[in-house]
Amino acid sequence: MDVRAQISMVFHLDKCIGCHTCSIACKNIWTDRKGAEYMWWNNVETKPGTGYPTKWEDQSVYKGGWKKNFTGEISLRGSGKYKGLLNIFHNPHLPVIDDYYEPWTYKYTDLIESPEGDDQPTARPISLITGEPIDIKAGPNWDDDLSGTPDYARNDPNLASLSPAERDAMFQLERMAFFYLPRICNHCLNPACVASCPSGAIYKRGEDGVVLINQKVCRAWRMCVTACPYKKSYYNWHTGKSEKCILCYPRLEAGLAPACMHSCVGRIRYLGILLYDADKIKDAASANDDELISKQMNLILDPFDPEVIKDAKSNGVADTTINAAQYSPVYKFVKSWGLALPLHPEFRTLPMLFYVPPLLPVMASVTEQSKEQTEKFDSIAKVWNDKWLYDTSTEELWQNVERARFPLKYMANLLTGGDENSIKSVLKKLMAVRIHRRRVTVGDVSNQKADKVLSDVNLSSEMADAIYYLTSLAKFDDRFVIPPAHREQAIEMLEYTGDTRGSAGFGFKEKPSRIS
Amino acid sequence: MYMKNLLQLFFLMSIVSIFLPKSMAQSEGERLFIQICRACHTVGEGRLVGPDLLNVTKRRSEEWLLSFIKSSQTVIKNGDNDAVDLFKEFNQIIMPDQTLSQSQIKSILTYIEGIVVDKTKTVSGTEQFKLQNKEGLNIGKLRAEDFIQARKLFSGDIRLINNGPACISCHNVVDDNLISGGLLAKDLTSAYKRLGGEMALNSIITNPPFPVMAAAYANNPITPDEAFLLTAFLYKANKDSIFQWTHKDYQNSFLKNGIITAFVLFGGFGLLWWNRKRKSVNHHIYKRQLKTK
């Protein structure tokens, strides 16, 4: 057992309000530079939608992630040793700037310096890449809140396995629903970007598993851009190096939450340490499609298990880190309660960012206004003959989860690689917590019914209360359990610190070189 | 017997005169004639590449001669019948334009005028000089290794003694053992036949009448031995040209093969990259958008 520590995250999608505060916080700190204007290390997508870059989930276009060979081994889909060598000078599957969007600003001086005329002066949009006036074609959130649905949402790659009838049902005006999907680098356990880099510039930090690109070693092959199935590695055209989310490691080392998490208005983000067994990574990454989730979950070790603690200590994991792992909110969501799932596990990178799926408005009813509305419905749509347009409130306990406004198949494509049962069990648990809390706060649910609901999903009322607490009431220190970084130990592994330790502080200072 | 000896002496003299350095010429006219005209013309010794110039001043007016020598092609293009007939009669070989002044041409004409040939020792027009090298061998008798040396001289594998440029830099000769030569001057594969034999060839090589070639070898003259070998090479090239593979239409087959290779190459790349990403995934969305005028 090779026990290691990984900083990992849980995003609670039911709580995300799609305000993009996280994106702005990240942009202000890290990517407000020349060459990085188009990058959004953190972005929030509307689902269903095509996301950023457009259709990033469609690996038939971008060739990211791993795929399993007929031999049972996994290999990179679009890069790697031989494929990478063959394509090293033209790298055919890279996203182009139009797949992201062309960043722009406005020529604000037009507003005050324009000569007097019959109409109001306008600030023309100027490309941040060419400096020329441009026609704005798209932005990073052009399909926000389902705008441009025929062009964007209907082309969501997750809809591919849904029948035309199911898809049409999703996009009826009266039934339409959406949720937000905030995305950062997943800091995967089996990162495709690290495997693809011809220069060896990308590495996964030993002490906390943060995946970083060494800017001094990067040689701009951009294989990581192709290889990352989440398209979270970006090429800076100005510096000629690739960049990605660094999980605000300077903040982490100071005990602060990353900027996107710190600023989160909906408080949807949780961060904590997980202990995992590095020996099982290969096995988990090359598991069969139906076992991907369970094998990834088995990687994560119980931080209270004495065996695990012993092996962790012998492996150099600090006591403070083990302690943090025991209080990790991520461990609770992912392992103790089984509420969080990795995004697109079928890419086989073993992402360490987990999502609590959105329950969405399950209990809702809309009264029909007129018959005319019904006539506009698609022929395959279910039409209620009574006055209800749709009604998902029900006396039955679980029926509404299966009949949720979002087809289970869609959620399964997003979070479980197509396995509807896994997603259903998570949604049922979320539902059970709501029913339990309704019994406590409103009291119109009978104890018998609420208890049955909880026992159906193997939750005790204490666990349900704990879930409720961490979901709704958790304080800063509950949401972010950041262990001391112990950088001094990490540095000692790399270089001899005896020279500086105990010295008077004389030495040579390297001036930071910044790009003007 | 005396006459025969005289004739032999005359022949010997004429051959020697070809190789004589120009400083030894008597008058300016003679010097210029030997340097420029002698390659293709004789006076009273029969036709070479061009006609025998004996009594040419009596046959043509001085004005005509002046303009023809200055630029024969201009006269021909102007439609002068005599000039056109002459051009056709001599296998349409272009007489190169000369950068000679009026007075220089006149001095040559005076030199030609002054030559009187004894009618009794007329030389038939078709009779050719026979070239011999130092060992007294004719071109036809040369050994195979001599021809190899000749070819190396032509291709520049062996440097010309006076460091003149190798023939191949401007001329092409169809020979499987050679790379294709330059396109700056005429193809010399059939030069032997075209220019009417070894004597004329040898004269041209020794004393190039063509301005560019003359300038190229002005300070790096070709030695008589080299000229002999090069003549021999061209003689053999002419004889053997039909046996050469490269005698085929080289330029057209290059184009044809190029097109086929391009198809194969691009087809191969097309197959290799048939499913690569060609345009932005947003292409069809952007195409629908309205553009500002």
What share of residues are in beta strands of chain A? 5-15%
Question: What class do helices, strands and sheet pairing of chain A give?
Answer: alpha+beta
> Which structural category fits the helices and strands of chain B?
mainly alpha
Quaternary structure classification: heterodimer
**What low-confidence regions of chain A span 5 or more consecutive residues with pLDDT below 50?**
none
CATH class of the largest domain in chain B, named: Mainly Alpha
Helix content of chain A: 25-40%
Instruction: Please name the CATH topology of the largest domain in chain B.
Output: Cytochrome Bc1 Complex, Chain D, domain 2
Rounded to an integer, what's the Rg of chain B over CA atoms?
A: 27 Å
The CATH superfamily of the largest domain in chain B is identified as: Cytochrome c-like domain
* Terminus-to-terminus distance of chain A: 48 Å
Number of strands of chain A: 17
Most extensive chain interface and residues per partner: A-B, 19 and 14 residues
Separation, N- and C-terminal Cα atoms of chain B: 104 Å
Largest β-sheet summary of chain B: none
Low-confidence stretches of chain B: 123-128
Topology:
The complex is a heterodimer of chains A (516) and B (293).
Chain A: E1 3-12, H1 21-31, E2 43-47, H2 59-62, E3 66-68, E4 74-76, H3 81-86, H4 97-100, E5 104-106, H5 109-113, E6 125-127, H6 164-170, E7 179-183, H7 192-196, E8 202-204, E9 211-213, H8 223-227, E10 233-236, E11 241-244, H9 249-253, H10 259-262, E12 269-277, H11 281-285, H12 292-299, E13 300-301, H13 306-314, H14 319-326, H15 329-336, E14 341-342, E15 353-356, E16 365-367, H16 371-376, E17 388-391, H17 399-402, H18 408-415, H19 420-441, H20 447-456, H21 461-473, H22 476-479, H23 487-494
Parallel strand pairs in A: 1-15
Antiparallel strand pairs in A: 1-12, 2-7, 3-4, 5-6, 8-9, 10-11, 12-13, 14-15, 16-17
Chain B: H1 2-19, H2 28-37, H3 56-59, H4 62-70, H5 72-77, H6 81-89, H7 102-114, H8 144-155, H9 191-194, H10 198-206, H11 211-217, H12 224-240, H13 250-272, H14 283-288
Helix pairs in contact in B: 2-7, 8-12, 10-12
